[in-house]
């Protein structure tokens, strides 16, 4: 049966764009002379994954072009070729052709693009032979409109004095696939927040019900003592007690369920507002490269910390700011090679963006080693344009002169260009940053360069969090990290060599005491018989944090961190309650990091086995579309299926849960399929689990190695179909019960 492509196309395109973006980023790292030895394996794996998935979905042209690119970088890794400027242009043009292919696939469900010239020249490059860069038909148009269309910003709109409408920018495929109206998200968040009142009401009713139940029991005791012979009265009282207990139990369950549902819904929706800074900066190496080509300058550009996540509102508010500042740095800041050599500098200028998280704020530093600000020129220009009186100008400090660049309409540049307009816009930069409750500081030395430091909060929205108490102190745990809340008895704690653990959702998880983590009254941690356990989920980690008391989820407003908290990464902010009492907002990733240093729990011997009604299979592949294709086929046959993105995830999974079969790819990050098979087969408890390899690797040597390590079957993706997969799976699973 043929695979229905339509189910997987969107995710295939998302993954394809992600992989091409990765390749593009590494191309610029190579061009800049950055060591990419470790990253080359990731790059080749990305191209290999794209090739394999394209083969499964029968997109032959994308497969061929991916293979050609893979050959180029394989030759580069083996030092058979170098990447000259023309080679970089050929690779970038080929990546653009891949993106065009994804666009065609999205529209027409096929990859009918002309790739012959690109594949041919890539093959010549891989063989270290003479090649050419194919001319794209709309290359010139793209080049002339690149900045004004793809990177259009509020600054350019302000600078468009002609009154003529600009051409509409071609929409980005990936943006279309993830675009969600923020108004809708905010509406949902408000609706979820309103559920809090229902939870609080239910909690209040539950408390009233509990009080009523206690009163009924007390009255029953009194009446029974008063009239022991009235059997009818005694019977009715017992019925009333049972009814009250049932009502009380139902209300308690409803309160817990309503609260948990609201929290899970809020967690899911609020995550849509958070995006990594890479969504802005991943395109910048290409952007800076094209700006440098257009201005005739040489620029070494780097970005650090782009994996940091921040509220979508802030990213949108800052994207124009970053774009404008980078344009200015290339156009006005960095000198031409000839000017730099004359000034005693290297001919290649340096431009960098460094992002880091600092106690509840995001710090973005944009710096260049260009000409810097000429403070005397600023003074003269300010006098000439009437910004300051001549008498007062001489007394202005260097800092005061620097801040004049943020005055509306102030500019020391007499040059008008297509790149940075008329030199205006720093006032808009300042206003945009301050509108986000942030700040911007400039440090510039004439002839040496300029450093802009921007500080913005991680979120400008209200924070949903759980007020907790620990040793008499108040803290806030952000709701987006909370999976649920448990009330556990002391005897429910499993202690192994003084390392506490609890059971949660059919698994064993670590239990940490907040008093231990924060080192406050640690001796009180085990004194209570009842413990509030907050189940924390952070990325791929899950753990329980024990606190003394916890209140229902609340919406709180973040306040600026006091100066004495600046160097405490465990806190991300503070809030004030209605009584103006301060509570510190905990930064949960740091809390967990500290907790892991206190205790390390050996999970190996404490996996829990439960009765299995159906056979379970683990599918392991670093390509999401491939995982879903295989998973859907197996689920349709009635199997229970879990997935893992690499061998390390898979190994953790098989050690904590029973599986009757593992289907794995070979070429994966972190831990490849060969090492996964080896680890499974050398473990006495896991060795009986059969493993099927499903890989693009068709070499007999790879097949022999996998089978020698203990694989029970080997399917090449080129010949992959429903029938041969199910045939192999059914044969292996029904061949033995694989109990351990």
UniProtKB/TrEMBL annotation:
It catalyses: ATP + protein L-histidine = ADP + protein N-phospho-L-histidine. Involved in the transmission of sensory signals from the chemoreceptors to the flagellar motors. CheA is autophosphorylated; it can transfer its phosphate group to either CheB or CheY. This is histidine kinase. One of its GO terms (biological process) is chemotaxis. Keywords: Kinase, Nucleotide-binding, Phosphoprotein, Transferase. SUPFAM superfamilies: ATPase domain of HSP90 chaperone/DNA topoisomerase II/histidine kinase, CheW-like, CheY-like, Histidine-containing phosphotransfer domain, HPT domain. The modification 4-aspartylphosphate is found at residue 665. Residues 204-460 form the Histidine kinase domain. One of its GO terms (molecular function) is protein histidine kinase activity. Its EC number is 2.7.13.3. Signal peptide: none annotated. Residues 153-173 have a biased composition (Basic and acidic residues). Residues 616-732 form the Response regulatory domain. Residues 1-105 form the HPt domain. It comes from uncultured bacterium contig00019. It is an enzyme of class 2 (transferase). The modification Phosphohistidine is found at residue 48.
